[in-house]
Write a structure and sequence with these properties.
By secondary structure, the first copy, chain A, is α+β, with helices and mostly antiparallel strands. Chain A contains 12 helices and 13 strands. Chains A and B meet through strand 2, strand 3, helix 3, strand 4 and strand 5 of A and strand 2, strand 3, helix 3, strand 4 and strand 5 of B. Strand 3 of chain A pairs antiparallel with strand 2 of chain B. Chains A, B: Its EC number is 2.7.4.16.
Chain lengths: ~375, ~375
């Protein structure tokens, strides 16, 4: 194989030639939705100190920032994720927080810092990933900060708008509300659990299943359409994305809303690939599905009386969700199986540095 | 000396105990100005996915992100800047971009990542600096992202609002407009030029002058009040902060506006401490004042007919600015001295990795 000849441009060249193509023609774009009139009057193509939006009516603005590990992240270091994948993930991770508020994303600012040895092709790949992630979320990458550093650093900020007062908080769940989730969780956590241990299993998973496991990292989806339905029509009483894993998310909504939750174990959707990893590891697939992961599903609560109407509106948009339990007044997060046996929520909740999916395998699944 | 006993808390503890004190009671704060009704309905104290603002009338929203080098930054590595200083600088650097748009800052999101060996006291110092920087700029730190990484990483996003359509761009300067700056530039660049070479000078500068040189880094000021006057009353035709140094700023406004500039050399304010560093280095003080630096003055252009009214309004607020030249139709940035000699703008403009203040001393001051 002939090695690719690496080119390392200076930053002004990178900005103009490698990023420029992604950022032309932004200014003037309408980026609102749901009757909110929002126009990007100066995007990254305006090359000014800031991006500028004109907001023509009262609205709520939501803003959030997420840093991603990128390098030093095990799947990237193993060569399983590319620069494009990491850029894509960065954009979607940030937009997901906007979706969780029930808002429409109006833009993403990104910080991309890189060491000298990152050549132009690799740098452009990261930018292309950010760009595609924004596009797939229906929003714009409106600039930010690029420059050198002694390692790759990726961080971003997303912002969105919704009708005044309609932002979905974590704190609105009431006893009796239904607990719902837009889809199965745990895929990204299962990938992190599986790949570094792959050689220790007698027989690994098929290429197809391995691809599926990586797909959650490579092309995650922010639930923007789902969040918008939940927020615009005030269906959800509380909402949060599952980027800490389903168990942690349920516990966080529980604490913010001062309620309890009882999850019906058989109603929690389990992704088949997650089930296969659980089998290999000798752990419960429900526990792995609910453990630390970085999926971008939405977990939300719903007044029981609104279930049919909400489900119908999801269906109209080609979407669906799962009712997995209900809010209680116990102050505890627990699950019940078809035999009526009640236990604390299975799985290992994300607790910053402390969580480790391997705790599942050692039987130390409770904190 | 008894070494301080270091404490390293986990992240949830840091969030609750070390950051919590800075973030209580934010939600509900009114953060607008100039007749713009903006209320922070969910700040960092709401501990949700995002911060939420209610914007009650049409307005322009401006957003920008800046990463700062922090560690690997020479003055920090030399122990001349503390964690508090770096946090403070991060906040002000980001707010400065909002000021340059003539907008009122309504919040800052920050990303603070740290390695395990950063103890609680050091971590809290950085957060305290960010908090104080926001407070001194009249804005709020509404959260962001904290967590571990293998080194300290500091990044932030600031956002602000202004009357619809009143954001100050770089592109509005017209030939005949006056070129102005809110104060002397080059202090931060002079500090970077001086301290690493301090031991090579036969006699260094006095403690007082050294303190003054560091002061620009330790307690920079974003020109929020100045920007607001320039934007709200539409005095400025173009505006940019001088965070790349005065020469680069003038050249960037020139390119964005498609004009030229002629600077009157004797009218450019020079900070005495910068003059002393220039003398020590054997370079021209005007050149050092205009070279790569990270000051947060505002450079702006003004229709000549509005000069007196604008100056009067600045004076009412206890503020002032300097007229240092005018926009031309030559497409060149040049300066003229009292003898009528014309030359390209002195100094070394910031060009990402390529700029080095030492070029001044080698005589390679032109690109």
């Amino acid at each position: 194989m002939t090695p690719r000849k690496a080119t390392y441009s200076d930053e002004p060249t990178r900005v103009q030639q490698l990023i420029g193509e992604f950022l032309t023609g932004q200014s003037g774009t309408s980026v609102g939705a749901d009757g909110l009139d929002v126009r990007l009057t100066a995007g990254a193509d305006a090359k000014d100190d800031c991006a500028v939006y004109d907001l023509s009516s009262p609205m709520s603005l939501v803003v959030g920032s997420d840093y991603i590990r990128g390098p030093k992240f095990v799947l990237y270091e193993m060569g399983l994720l590319s620069g494009f994948d990491i850029g894509y993930y960065l954009a979607v991770a940030n937009v997901s927080d906007i979706a969780a508020m029930g808002a429409t994303p109006i833009g993403v600012l990104s910080v991309v810092r890189y060491p000298h040895e990152v050549d132009d092709a690799e740098f452009q790949e990261v930018i292309a990933g950010i760009h595609q992630g924004c596009t797939d979320c229906g929003t714009l990458n409106v600039g930010g900060d690029i420059g050198n550093a002694e390692r790759i650093i990726l961080s971003a900020t997303a912002f969105g708008v919704c009708k005044p007062g309609s932002a979905l908080m974590r704190s609105g769940a009431r006893p009796g509300d239904l607990l719902c989730v837009t889809g199965p969780c745990g895929l990204l956590g299962a990938a992190v659990a599986y790949f570094p241990r792959r050689d220790t299993f007698e027989k690994g998973l098929s290429d197809e299943v391995e691809r599926r496991l990586l797909d959650g990292w490579k092309r995650p989806r922010a639930r923007v359409a789902e969040g918008r339905i939940l927020g615009t029509k005030a269906y959800a009483t509380a909402c949060q994305d599952t980027s800490d894993g389903l168990k942690a998310t349920i516990e966080q909504i529980m604490h913010a809303s001062d309620v309890g939750f009882r999850v019906v174990e058989e109603d929690v959707p389990v992704e088949p690939a997650v089930g296969m990893v659980a089998d290999l590891m000798g752990v419960e697939s429900l526990a792995l599905s609910m453990s630390a992961s970085s999926d971008f599903q939405l977990a939300f609560t719903l007044e029981a009386g609104k279930l049919e109407k909400c489900r119908a509106e999801f269906a109209l948009a080609g979407l669906d969700f799962h009712v997995i339990g209900e809010a209680t007044d116990t102050g505890r997060a627990e699950s019940v199986n078809h035999l009526g046996a009640v236990r604390p929520l299975p799985g290992v909740a994300w607790k910053h540095q402390k969580s480790d999916i391997s705790l599942l395998a050692t039987g130390r699944v409770e904190e």
